[in-house]
Amino acid sequence: MIRAKAGKRLICLTAGMMALMLFFSQHGGFSFACADDGQTPVDLEMADAETADETEEIGYTAYAAQHAEVPAGGQTLELKGGSYTEDAGAGVTADGVVKDAVRWESEQGSLRFHVTTAAEGLYIFKLRYRPLPGRGGDIRLGVRLDGQYPFAEARELSFPRLWQDADEKQTDTSGNELVPEQVELDRSIQYEAQDIVGRHNGAYVFHLTAGEHVLELVAVSEPFILESVILEPALECPDYNETLQPDAAKYNGSPIVIEGEDALYKTASSLLPQSDTNSAVIRPADPEHMLLNYIGGTGWDGIGQAITWKIDVPQDGYYRLGATYRQDTVINGVSYRMLKIDGELPFAEAGEWAFPYKNGWAYTDFANEEGAPYVLYLTEGEHELSLSVCMGSMASFRSRLESLVDDIGDLYIQIHMITGEFPDANRSYELFKQIPDFNDRLKDMADRLKALAEDMEKTTGGQNSSLVSSLNNMRRVLNIMLENPYAAHQYKSDYYSNYNTVSSWLYEMTSMPLAIDALYLQSPNTQGAARETSFWQSAAYAVQRFVSSFSQDYQYEVSSQNSEALTLWITSSFDQAQVVQSLLSNSFTKETNIEVNVKLVNREYFRFDLEMRRADGIVYCRSADHTGCSV
Question: In this structure, are residues 419 and 492 in contact, taking their beta carbons and an 8 Å threshold?
Fold first, then answer.
């Protein structure tokens, strides 16, 4: 009894103190200070104001919607790196090579520029820069306008480094080609600020009113040389039909083949040429040796990652573009790429080239939804063709899913606050009465899930993907709760499980893997692939591949005149041995001038050999499983 009274008094006392704190905080002047450490008191009103400022920062989706009716800017504005008006802790120095460029090596501070616009408009932010040696990551900067980040994503914008294959090609003694070393390209790069998360396609647009502004670049990571900042009017890209020239000639020559593995450069050092010896479809194909014959795969899946090829165009005219590709990862889904010629979209539809799911290597034209190929007008001479990972039509789906996940999560929190972690199955929690608009919210989310699933099925030709199945399962749980209002709490576990599954797709949706064997520029008057492989050719290749497996040398050795070359015995797979040999040749051997021969050995034979050597006192092992063995 005494304990119960004491407990009640403690509750009343606590409630009274909280009420007093709330009263003073709402009527001004309430602050806390440490009595004995001499620190400055924390002003709660100021802290609230700072929190409010951060809360006012909106995402790019809302920012773009606010300025959707604003026209494009009037003219291109270029700010040279050396024309900054204030160095706020950046510590930049003159480049000495490029006029008016500055070296920003501190990776801290900011630079401020004054810019004047004649009229209100939308601009694309572009940076012309040259990366400096650092940690190998992308250049990351924040952009403020008049002291504020215009949208949340502007706090950290990414500008990539460029990489290319080393000039020399290496093979082992068996004639297998090794993956080349990746070296950074030392050149000026012009790149536009764009989304790398997957919410939007293309470049960010920045809103500027007429008059003077302060544009501030804020360092985040990696050193670089700043050559200039470019504000380019955000003009709408014309549609395909608007770009057609009826009187222009059509190319009628032989197909022009651009091998995927012969990329000019790429935006990530992980985009390596690779080998596939299991198919006669791709070129070059050799049943006995591993030849580098494609690029991409599961490593080419990050939003914004781009690969660029050089193309030699023989004459002015229209060309049909196609590709041999493999996309067998996004099951019943589509992987998208943004196509650019010389750094620009040829027309709006080039913003999303769809590569549908296929089991194995396949051919596709750059075509519209009905399958009619687009034609590209190219002038004679050298051009650069690039494909970059983008979300395509999935960007809008992801935004809708993100909104749904937020709403489903918010409702789950309210359910959890009422039922606790483990709801009592024999109790009626009356969720439909205790949670405001519970019935309407469940119905609204179920309808939105159904609409999203149906729209996504249309992009895959009616095929049911794993994501669509997850959406339908979530909708099923919501409908069951609607049909059983007094037992809705019993489905809380199913609700949470499906919510987690749907939430995980926010990340999975942004993965767009794709492998490219070759690109083809062909005559618009032709149809189909530039090179095809018949059934008999594939069958003959398979037989040759099978026969060669009995005589193939599964050792990796480099040609060496050095008697001190090391031999490394490994028990991993054939493909892993090739990767190890490539890494050793490209790094260890170059740095130490010590050559290493990688040899495969059977695991059981290796264990037996070590046992024998240890018995003779030649090899000492720290454990019975032969780890940590030494001579």
Answer: yes
Share of the chain above pLDDT 70, in %: 81
Residues 6+ apart with CB under 8 A from 426: none
Burial of 134 (0-12, 13-18, 19+ CB in 10 A): middle
Q: How far is the C-alpha of 295 from the C-alpha of 247, rounded, in Å?
A: 37
One-letter amino acid identity for 435?
A: I
Backbone angles phi, psi at 539, to 5 degrees: -65, -45
Residue 432 above 90 pLDDT? yes
Which residues have CB under 8 Å from 318's CB, separation 6+? 248, 249, 250, 251, 375, 376, 377, 378, 524
Listing DSSP states for 403-463 in one string gives: HHHHHHHHHHHHHHHHH-SS--TTS---HHHHSTTHHHHHHHHHHHHHHHHHHHHHHTTT-
What residues contact residue 179 under an 8 Å CB cut-off, 6+ apart? Answer: 272, 273, 274, 292, 578, 579, 582
> Would you state the pLDDT for residue 606?
59
Nearest partner of 111 among 273, 20, 268, 228, judged by Cα: 228
3-class DSSP state for residue 237? coil
Tell me which residue of 368, 196, 360 sits closest to 276, measured CA to CA. 360
pLDDT at 35 over 70: no
**By mean pLDDT, which of 66-75, 370-379, 534-543 is the weakest?**
534-543
pLDDT at residue 241 tops 70 = yes
